[in-house]
Amino acid sequence: MPRFQIRALCTAMLIAVPLSFSGAQSKPTIEQFLSPAYPSDLVAAKKADRIAWISYDRGRRNVYTAAAPDFKPVRLTKFLDDDGVILSELEISDDGSIVSFVRGSEPNRVGWIANPSSDPQGPDRAIWAASTNGSAAWRLGPGAGPALSPDGHSVVFARDSQIYRYQIVPRVSAPAEKDQQPYIKEWGRNMTPRWSPDGSKLAFVSLRDNHSLIAVYDVRTRRFHYVAPSVDIDASPTWSADGKRLAFVRRPGLPFGQQAQVGDGSIGNPGGGNDLEIDSQHLAYGTIGARAGVSIYLTEVSNDAQVVLLEALTGNIRFTVRESAASGEVDRRLQRARQHRR
After folding, report:
1. Mean pLDDT of 316-322
2. Cα–Cα distance between 233 and 267 in angstroms, integer?
3. Of 338 and 51, the one with more pLDDT
4. Contacts of 314 (CB under 8 A, 6+ apart)
5. At residue 336, what are phi and psi to the nearest 5 degrees?
6. pLDDT, position 296
7. How many Cβ atoms from other residues are within 10 Å of residue 280's Cβ?
């Protein structure tokens, strides 16, 4: 953490919650040590002497800001109940005029959001914005993972595999979730939007079935292109300070011979399996493993689970074993398939 941020936060916290003693003979109490609020998520404006942070004080979570020269804390939100609803993902615009944050818990593995206050209307996980002059804080709409634009005029975020945007300045009412159109709509599961330092471009990850790409969207021309596209897994786009370069992490993707995919048998588009319709009785299936150049699929036939072994390259069925068969039979057949490939 830069020395400026540390000094500013310490000054702000001392002003906000000083420890007071009634006299020289007074003994400190537990309350005096527990009363100072816990600060987190400290952010600093790039072009202004202003900081912002999230404060946890007696169960109440709020966003504060402070600016030079005195760094006097100013509360920006009015969440005054100990309701257990968390704040996170705090960001501040370059000029320090706007902050954005998320209010609400992360969903669990089945998509449920915590409702610690037992609100009969259900839990909410939404993106908020606030003016650092203390005039207002307002809910933008449902969402998470917002990327605040450098000028503070909008936030972008991923939802339903597409990139959406909420406008902050000028302040307008967001459309209903069912009526909102994507800001960027493209095939794949798109996520992790990242603004360039000047706000003219937006990088994001486009995840496909067995690889992912880094895309760069131009705000002025409303066009995008892929950066060094390949069949590997690209992630974590990060802009250079001048916005002229983009770094990202690349990991090897799934080898083509192990990919299960639709194909017509032509050159460059071989036949094979993830969406291969084995016969009309199959209700559902999906890859559960890969061994020795073959793919193992779990299927259902008349509500009776089966294991089907397919060749990864051709999509030909090697054998079918019902779930009721002993595991030893599956192992023996898989061993014979391996020997056959040799």
Report:
1. 46
2. 24
3. 51
4. 270, 271, 272
5. -65, -35
6. 43
7. 6
Cβ neighbours for 172, distance < 8 A, ≥ 6 positions apart: none
Residue 175 has a pLDDT of: 76
Of 232, 177, 183, residue with least CA distance to 204: 183
pLDDT reported for residue 340:
47
Handedness of CA 305, 306, 312, 316 (dihedral sign): negative
Structural domains of the chain, with CATH: 3-183 (2.40.128), 270-341 (3.30.67)
Contacts of 160 (CB under 8 A, 6+ apart): none
Mean pLDDT of 262-283: 42
Query: 160 is written with which tokens?
Result: 């339903």
Report pLDDT digits (tens) over 4-27. Answer: 555 555 555 555 544 444 445 688
- Interatomic CA distance for residues 33 and 138, integer angstroms: 33
Q: What is the pLDDT of residue 170?
A: 80
Quote the tokens at residue 12: 């702000």
Q: Would you state the structure tokens that stand for residue 5, as one six-digit string?
A: 């941020």
Nearest-Å Rg of the Cα atoms of the chain is 27
Q: What is the residue-averaged pLDDT of the chain?
A: 77
Structure tokens at 55: 């404060």
The pLDDT tens digits for 113-154 are 999 989 899 999 999 999 999 999 999 999 999 999 999 999
Residues in the chain: 342
The better pLDDT of the pair 182, 260 is held by 182
Please report, in angstroms and rounded to a whole number, the separation of the first and last CA atoms in the chain. Answer: 58
Contact 58, 39 (CB under 8 A): no
Order of all β-strands in the sheet with 126-131:
87-92, 98-103, 126-131, 137-142
Closest CA to 209 of 231, 184, 180, 237: 231
Neighbour-count burial of 287, counting CB atoms closer than 10 A to its CB (0-12 exposed, 13-18 middle, 19+ buried): middle
pTM above 0.85, yes or no: no
Q: What is the DSSP letter of 71?
A: -
Beta strand pairing status for 162-167 and 189-195?
Answer: unpaired
* 313's tokens: 């390259």
Tell me how far apart the alpha carbons of residues 112 and 263 are, in angstroms, rounded to a whole number.
Answer: 37
